[in-house]
Amino acid sequence: MNVLEVKQLSKKFGDFIAVDNITMSVKEGEIFGFLGANGAGKSTAINMIASLLRVTKGEIEVLGKNIAKHSKFAKMNIGIVPQEMAIYEDMTAYENVRFFAGLYGLRGAELKERVIEALAFVGLGDKHKSYPKNFSGGMKRRLNIACAIAHRPKLLIMDEPTVGIDPQSRNYILGSVKKLNELGCTIIYTSHYMEEVEEICTRIAIIDHGKIIAEGTKGQLKAIITNQKNISIEVRSAENLNKSKLEAIAGVNRVEVEDRIVKVTSDSEINNLNRIIQQLMADDLEIRAVEENEPSLETVFLTLTGRSLRDQ
Amino acid sequence: MRERGTPVEIWTMGIKAVLLSYVAIQSYESVDLISTWYMLSILIYLCLNISIHIVKKASSKSIVLLLAMLAIAVSSSYIHPLFMLLLPLNIYELFAIYLRKHGLIVLLMLAPLVLISQYAQSILVTYGLVALLSFLYNLLLHTYISRMTDLRADLENRHEHIQQLTKSLNENKEYIRQSDYTIKLEERNRLSQEIHDKIGHSMTGALIQMEASKRLFTSNPDKSAELLQNAIHISKDGIETIRLVLKNMKPPTEQLGINRMKLFIDEFSAKQTVRTSLTHEGNVDSMTPIQWKVIQENTQEALTNAMKYSNATVVSIHIQVLRTLIKVEVSDNGQGAQKVIKGLGIIGMEERAASVNGTIIVDGSRGFSVTTLIPHG
């Protein structure tokens, strides 16, 4: 079942078209990544899905129900971690989470239990009574996440949750995203950081000037450009190389030898590096270095949009 | 030629006539004797209100209106208070020339109420009613008339546009018919030339040889057989030539794909002052004719736009064939656009791209660029 279904969604601000006829769906259990430069329309699209912005045209369905007609249902099932921090500095961490969870209708013992659970989940279990104004950027971000997950949403939307924080907090947040996902929460994730998206997202949409220009798994996106990878293996001497045996390995398309470097071109979908190395070892070639070149997501993004993600 | 008043004038005269009749009838009933002064003031009112529409300059119009208002004030205080009811319309007419704010005008129209409340309380309510009704009437009238004028202008523009379109459509039809005919002629010409030059000659040669062979058939069978053999050779050559001519009827490769695009870009840059460059990477031969068609039409549209709006000196076209996607970018070094507004041109490109499941991206931030993305393979 699709957790999210977006049909021909558009948003206009005056003459400016921020989101232009987007159609997409997110299946249960996915971590769906939105990649796009600043101003590409990511946040606008996300804010419409979270009912924070009025839709100009199109339809959004959450868990099979139209959010315009079932707005309460949609709100109860969506958690949003906004780009701008949404926490109260002069309320304690505990009060912050209790406030937001209370908005979703949690009461009494259940409320208390969920708040404690959410704070523990983001690693702030020992900071119940502390005030966010004394928190580091990373801790504020984690508190922000706790506020969004206490009501156990089916769909969690995270808009750039790792902007401007230290690497440690970032790793912690990425870890919690994966853990949440394992617990059955479907996640939509936007980020400026290609590595993050590449690491955690199961499916990715590249968005540019308000349109989705490519969508698919990492492999599918890379395959837009090429389905080949280059493996360069430096050996002490390539004299004993049995070229035909190397070429017989599944996926290998071409083998070239340049001085002491063996260059293998292979299908990028097939993982055959082990077998190639084994073959070279069987030929008694002394391996000095191995380098594998696959097109990165960055290359795909650059090729499709003509600019790199962080070149603003 | 008879000049007719504008709709506003006619309707204003109408409401004035209605009000005047009301005033006349009311005062006739309340006064026993109609004095000459009474008749005079009505006539003065009529004269002044008609001259408003005769004078053209705004300043003289205001003077006439002031006189009319003065006349009304005098006659209402000396002859009959009901004359006051004619005032609001003139107030509106006077101030509508200078003021844009309707709120202010309506206040001015109601201002005489202060005076009336002191000197002629009997018509206080009636005046208020008439003033407000006159205001609403005029407001409505102006709103609708200006709407109508706008719509009429719009309609005329559209008519003109349609006429132009029809004209160019007809011209294009004629052009197509002409070029169709020319192409047919050229093709027929080429065929007859080739048939004449190659096949005709062979056939004649073979015929002569066969005639000769027939004559020598009994007297010199060996020679006859040789001639016949010659005829067979010539006929074989002829058949080969026919095959070649037919094969040449298929378009040569330089009229397809990237070559056609190059030709088109060259033609374009020869006619225009901007420098254009066409580059490509990847296997352009794998693209289908329909994809080429979409790309060429979009490129043409983007180039035309660049010429019209960008003030660019260089336009570059880059065709990139990736594994499952074709990307064509037409970009210029012109002034770009802060805000890209989707006009008919962009929508057209979008629709063409959509016909092959593609999409387009328009960016005005660094010069202007139109990128067509088409899935492929």
UniProtKB/TrEMBL annotation, chain A:
Sequence ranges assigned to domain ABC transporter in this UniProt record: 4-234
Keywords: ATP-binding, Nucleotide-binding, Transport
SMART domains given in the database record: AAA (SM00382)
Keyword Disulfide bond (UniProt): no
Organism: Paenibacillus endophyticus
Organismal lineage: Bacteria, Bacillati, Bacillota, Bacilli, Bacillales
Protein name: ABC-2 type transport system ATP-binding protein
One term of GO molecular function: ATP binding
Domain of life, source organism: Bacteria
From TrEMBL, chain B:
Xref: InterPro entries: HATPase_C_sf, Sensor_HK_TwoCompSys, Sig_transdc_His_kin_sub3_dim/P
Domain of life: Bacteria
Name this polypeptide is given: histidine kinase
Reaction catalysed by this enzyme: ATP + protein L-histidine = ADP + protein N-phospho-L-histidine
One Gene Ontology term, aspect cellular component: membrane
Keyword Membrane: yes
Species per Swiss-Prot/TrEMBL record: Paenibacillus endophyticus
Chain ranges passing through the membrane: 7-25, 37-55, 62-83, 95-116, 123-145
EC number: 2.7.13.3
Presence of the UniProt keyword Kinase in the record: yes
Ranges where the Signal transduction histidine kinase subgroup 3 dimerisation and phosphoacceptor domain occurs: 187-253
Swiss-Prot/TrEMBL keywords: ATP-binding, Kinase, Membrane, Nucleotide-binding, Phosphoprotein, Transferase, Transmembrane, Transmembrane helix, Two-component regulatory system
GO molecular function: ATP binding; phosphorelay sensor kinase activity; protein dimerization activity
